[in-house]
């Protein structure tokens, strides 16, 4: 007796699993809206355990960013949101950066962070954040987070894009072959400062 | 003499027919924005006769939904709208459901329908609709239509998505293997009620 | 005992009725996204009976367009869809026009219509439509509908905008003060033709 | 010497602070895109401490949802994202619900949750989540979270809308005046079941 | 010493170059959002020299449109903007046309242009533009540009779509096989006028 | 005789001029989608002469940006595009900056510019541009333009937002009260360098 009721809707969903989601096929063609859709999906495609463990903070910034974007977590492909985990040792810093395609919400899990962003009219909006606090960084603006407490700090950040991008200022400037004189003209920094940081960060030119 | 005027614009359109539309290629790759585009199209690709005839209403709900979404009518792929036909016998009902990715407009062609939706603050917005009436159901909200008249009823619904989706509550709950105790906890329904409906609708667990 | 469960969500919805919809306040400020929201709403705000009756077809085109856009039906404001009713007498025509901000789906209720659109590369996509047929007109493209049958025809059109706009070619050209020589240069039409139509349609210049 | 460089850009930003953000003015007009913008903003507008403390879980579901949507946290107005805090006692449950205008990412802070969603074709995608795990719920689909562990559980959820909405199934059905016979027809539930839940949840009709 | 800092972000970007852009692969699958992405890109992909030189104005309209849309300039694919160059001899005209998927900004480089558009309520908004002037044409509306000066004129137009489309009225009507009687009914033009222009522009029917 | 034809459409447009455009009312409420709409508009509202003349380049960067965003040119409000004029003396530079809400197309009118952007993976995409060349800068990425020729240079830039924003790195860092030690931690720059630039650019802290 229950077959007829199935009939009325069953052919709605016969030809594609892309109706409600589009788990990314990292080997298929990529387009402006993201990865192609995998043909089948299970519950495992929609969960991700890669943020369970802290990133390696044994580095210059004493901090680590662990992303769960569509490339790491294909389940969010096409769904317009993603996350990342931030680990900061004492004195650690997530350096000055932007996300070119998303706004961000930070949630502090433990520790104390000084977080801030600059607006287009060069004003500073900053706040000291503690456990349970959240803060929003409007789309595309320069922002930073610094561990100003006496313990390690853990935070999670959410984005309204499955592929928000992350552009870290000092790496964009000093970790490639952008010529020193171009950087000097475009940033007002001294040549000596630029060359010093190119040395530290592996840049040339 | 007319050739030069062609020349000024002809190369605008030489390499793709995807300029103005993207008739879905059901066999090509699928992405978050929909199907890939067929390489050529004719007038037939943009019209659809599948809504001419009534769906089979010999079923538990005495009603039928006949969709013209991008899977059935690939001409709407990428254009952001679609339709469906609703046939309701006397006492027929389109059960409580949502469209996860679209708002809906219903147009009653004949008969009398009681239609309604519930908002996020649990209010009911309902209306008795007659021939020629339209009603809007805001995106993603639970809604229903019931034939409260003494004749068959016919209605057409429009969506602002080529792939709006349709999630029917009792099928989502009782026509799969979602465990009875999970349903009971998440819906407040009694176990006996759940098991009875799983029996009717083919669910297990 | 039921009060606590209300508590957990009640404050979610205390301060605005704009959560799920935004019924247009035609007297409030208007912005790029549409009208301001009315402060309260009832079921009546979401239904509309203005499409029940045929428009007046005693005119030059033997046809009438009756819109249910956000201005006529404020319930669709902000929801991204709307409708209109088309009545065509024998030999009636919905003249060559575009909708600058929406794609359109036509549904033929009775009679026979020849409908078509032209693409950017000047191809014609046309189809003779009968009762129950639907056809899509991609966003912004010139299209028309002509009653080619021997009876009156009725159709309903859906749009994926609450405010799709409608620009009818001959009225845009000949029913205002656009100078005849400008029209002649920009359309290749003869001055005599232009002046004749300005006379019929009330244009000057 | 530094004045000239200011001159070249200073007039860019003279007339509005809405360039980069639009902190909601809860007393101004509301439109389809959200609240009007406050005229001035400080760092405090962009952070929120309302998620620091657990919601009150002394209720039927042994759980609490504490939102930080644009109504509670006007700093996210217009920025397209928001959060909420979920507290679940042992055996607590966030009941079956949808967000009509957003996809969701859940992040488990402690405890064990069984989470799942149903797709339009009635399949179940569920997963047992532990500390540090995330899971995505595609836009508009029914989903639930149940504390299946032996300790309290805490989770945070992110949305890609500043006003995602939340529609809880049993409250939409049983906590208002939707008539029992309508519910029965539209959900397949028995009248006795409906009346029992209306009694528990405060509904009438 | 600089290796650790690379480590913290290097795996963000390891699997795709589609993060920040999606240079169109004209030979790959096309979808509703545009071309597939090329696998690699260089600086050359983001610049275009095809607008350096004037189009051929030896034609009926004494004007030429040279587009830099995603088909000609694949670097803009997926980025939501494009340009075109307009050359107009003395008495030249860019004929009455629409862009179905974009608003337009014109910038006059030299000469004098009369430019205008018609709104949905048939009003004319026109302006005489000189060197350095800009004018906006709202999405989808009929507009035109005429060289009313005594010298050649050059202008550049920008669109907020990588594939705005261009529909030129007289070509859509008279340069294809749309039957004369259909055109006559749908435009109010006389049969003689239609046939004359079909002759000039290569149309049949 | 022409009155009837007016009748069929005249009531479409009776109550608002916001149908096709929304010229910004700089004194009305502002929302996330832009300014409120002026009640009436003329051709003058849609054109702008403020880009006719060069900006004042007597400053540290030997360059000037003259914007035509919705604040300066309210005709583009809600239409999703805008422009700006760039004047660069010999050795002038538009410093390293981002547009948080838009992609950009540059068009070089005269002179020679070295232009470039950095992607999220720290690669440099640069190009020497001459008269008539265009180049695209993907949304939100750091980019710069330098006059590398022996004459003044003039360029125009288009954006796919009416309010793209502009964030200039050295002003965001050094022209406000962001503390020196915060800048040092977040950018790797030396304190001496920071203090020197704060002195030049008027910053404190």
TrEMBL record, chains A, B, C, D, E, F:
UniProt lineage: Eukaryota, Viridiplantae, Streptophyta, Embryophyta, Tracheophyta
SMART domains, per the entry: Cupin_1 (SM00835)
Cysteine pairs bridged by disulfides in the record: 22-37
Family as reported in the entry's similarity comment: Belongs to the germin family.
The UniProt record lists the keyword Secreted: yes
InterPro entries registered for this protein in UniProt: Cupin_1, Germin, Germin_Mn-BS, RmlC-like_jellyroll, RmlC_Cupin_sf
Positions annotated to bind Mn(2+): 97, 99, 104, 143
Main location: secreted
Species of provenance: Gossypium anomalum
Residue span, Cupin type-1 domain: 49-195
Protein location: Secreted, Extracellular space, Apoplast
Superkingdom, taxonomy of origin: Eukaryota
Pfam family membership, one: Cupin_1
GO MF assignments: manganese ion binding
Any single GO CC term annotated in Swiss-Prot or TrEMBL for this entry: extracellular matrix
Name assigned to this protein: Germin-like protein
Keyword terms: Apoplast, Disulfide bond, Glycoprotein, Manganese, Metal-binding, Secreted, Signal
Amino-acid positions noted as binding oxalate in the UniProt annotation, renumbered to this chain: 99, 104
Signal peptide: 1-18
């Amino acid at each position: 007796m229950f077959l007829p009721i199935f009939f009325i809707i069953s052919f709605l969903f016969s030809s594609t699993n892309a109706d409600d989601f589009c788990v990314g096929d990292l080997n298929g063609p990529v387009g402006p809206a993201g990865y192609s859709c995998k043909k089948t999906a299970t519950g495992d495609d929609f969960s991700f355990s890669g943020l369970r463990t802290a990133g390696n903070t044994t580095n210059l910034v004493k901090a680590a960013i662990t992303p769960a974007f569509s490339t790491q977590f294909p389940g969010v492909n096409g769904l317009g949101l993603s996350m990342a985990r931030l680990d900061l040792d004492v004195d650690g810093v997530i350096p000055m950066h932007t996300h070119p395609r998303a706004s961000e919400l930070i949630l502090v899990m433990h520790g104390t962070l000084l977080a801030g962003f600059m607006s287009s009219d060069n004003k500073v909006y900053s706040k000291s954040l503690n456990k349970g606090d959240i803060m929003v960084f409007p789309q595309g603006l320069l922002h930073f987070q610094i561990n100003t407490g006496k313990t390690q700090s853990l935070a999670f950040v959410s984005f309204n894009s499955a592929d928000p991008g992350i552009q870290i200022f000092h790496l964009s400037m000093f970790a490639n072959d952008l010529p020193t004189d171009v950087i000097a003209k475009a940033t007002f920094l001294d040549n000596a400062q630029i060359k010093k940081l190119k040395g530290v960060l592996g840049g040339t030119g």
